[in-house]
Write a sequence for this structure.
């Protein structure tokens, strides 16, 4: 048997370090056994998936040195490797489940489902919704079908009992069937959910070992059931511990930069970041902290993975990166720095904004040095502004950040439209509204347009700098954040309503 592992990210945002972490361990396991590592794109979320995000995933993993033998960009014998291109395959397999009685058409409306869940919550019933709860009487099904009402395909699941899932790190795991709902397998638009597509693709692509995050343990019974419904052999499962913030909470962008591209933009060496991710829950036999990916692959043993939640600590990463940097000779250091800081494709878009403003080359760095920097060095005093007090500044930055996080196609026009709409709704002059963003992004307002700067910096670094500015100004507590989010959602709804009423405005 040839060992085949995979990583299957969703192209719905910035490429996550958690994706790189799981990819690295899948690659290491495949290399250890002389097997194959595959990249698959799970883009069934057609609303949030974007080509830009997919390309960012490919670019960032390659920057790290993670390579795959099959994937959407290199092809292979088990393609297509994008789920959006495998629609007919999933429909064929759903028909098999329906014919065998392992799935059913569910015509329940959103209102009916909400009412059922609310009733269960009121009665203290924690059991998931089962086929017996969801399947309508035959005459009602016929009526809704004749009326052409929308439906989804759900899987049949046991009402009670225990499912035992074997895990390579944890051994047998017992999960109660009462907590497993009648999962939607195919949505009303004909696209599969993760659960169906994941099982079908892993089988057809010959995946032998599924190494994934421990958040998927609760889904394992559904997957095991689907394998049995199709009469397929299930791959061996290995659920890796989740990456954690220093406070032990799940790694999140609000407490730690999570975009791989952020670390590239910050000037970390890819070898150092991959080294650091390799240390997340695993260690070399001799316990040394600095090692290359080839050294990791040569010594890899999945059994050495610790189940304790590995802490992703930025300071520790900086220290490890410094070890890699100091081992470079002067010539290599200069070459690597120039390749990072003076990258032609990054520098050229900046030149048209800087060139009209300078008289000598020495003017360039003061005007555009923030394009080469990481997180801006800030103090609260830099944000002093006659028009806005500190609380208003934090609100403006937080509302703006939420808008920036919602952008799927990053461009200066999209940023401008969102920022100007927010300023108008908050009844703040655009100049005053943008002032804290100038400081957050560039450290000064005496520079090129902050909107152009954010477009050039990219979403990962722009968002990280705004988050940093909010922290410098005291941050937002949980209680305050909850109220702000409600007010913000009301504001966004009002902006959307106004745009519908006057689309040419």
């Amino acid at each position: 048997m040839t060992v085949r592992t995979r990583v299957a990210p969703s192209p719905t945002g910035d490429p996550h370090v958690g994706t790189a972490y799981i990819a690295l361990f899948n690659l290491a396991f495949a290399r250890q056994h002389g097997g194959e590592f595959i990249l698959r794109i799970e883009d069934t979320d057609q609303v949030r998936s974007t080509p830009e995000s997919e390309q960012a995933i490919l670019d960032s993993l390659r920057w790290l040195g993670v390579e795959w033998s099959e994937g959407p960009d290199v092809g292979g014998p088990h393609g297509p490797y994008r789920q959006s291109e495998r629609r007919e395959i999933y429909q064929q397999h759903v028909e098999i489940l329906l014919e065998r009685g392992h799935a059913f058409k569910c015509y329940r409306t959103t209102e009916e489902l909400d009412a059922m869940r609310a009733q269960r919550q009121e009665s203290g019933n924690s059991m998931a919704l089962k086929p017996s709860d969801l399947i309508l009487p035959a005459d009602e099904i016929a009526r809704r079908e004749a009326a052409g009402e929308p439906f989804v395909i759900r899987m049949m699941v046991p009402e009670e009992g225990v499912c035992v899932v074997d895990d390579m790190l944890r051994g047998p795991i017992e999960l109660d069937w009462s907590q497993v709902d009648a999962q939607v397998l195919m949505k009303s638009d004909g696209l599969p959910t993760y659960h169906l597509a994941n099982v079908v693709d892993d089988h057809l692509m010959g995946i032998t070992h599924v190494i994934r995050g421990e958040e998927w343990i609760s889904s394992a019974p559904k997957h095991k059931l689907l394998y049995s419904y199709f009469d397929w052999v299930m791959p061996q499962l290995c659920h890796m511990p989740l990456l954690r913030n220093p406070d032990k909470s799940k790694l999140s962008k609000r407490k730690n930069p999570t975009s791989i591209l952020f670390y590239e933009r910050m000037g970390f060496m890819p070898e150092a970041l991959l080294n650091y991710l390799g240390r997340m829950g695993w260690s070399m036999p001799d316990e040394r902290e600095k090692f290359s990916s080839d050294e990791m692959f040569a010594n890899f043993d999945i059994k050495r993975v610790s189940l304790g939640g590995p802490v992703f600590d930025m300071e520790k990463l900086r220290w490890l990166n410094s070890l890699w940097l100091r081992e470079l000779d002067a010539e290599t250091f200069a070459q690597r720095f120039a390749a990072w800081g003076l990258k032609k494709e990054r520098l050229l878009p900046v030149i048209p904004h800087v060139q009209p403003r300078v008289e000598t080359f020495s003017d360039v760095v003061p005007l555009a040095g923030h394009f080469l920097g990481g997180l801006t060095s800030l103090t609260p005093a830099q944000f002093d502004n006659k028009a806005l007090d500190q609380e208003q500044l934090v609100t403006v930055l937080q509302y703006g950040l939420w808008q920036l996080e919602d952008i799927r196609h990053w461009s200066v026009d999209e940023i401008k439209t969102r920022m100007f709409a927010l300023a108008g709704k908050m009844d703040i002059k655009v100049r005053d509204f943008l002032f804290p963003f100038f400081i957050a992004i560039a450290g000064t307002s005496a520079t090129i347009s902050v909107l152009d700067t954010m477009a050039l910096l990219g979403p990962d670094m722009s968002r990280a700098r705004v988050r940093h500015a909010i922290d410098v100004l005291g941050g937002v507590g949980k209680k305050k954040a909850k109220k702000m989010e409600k007010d913000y959602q009301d504001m966004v709804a009002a902006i959307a309503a106004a745009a519908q009423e006057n689309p040419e405005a």
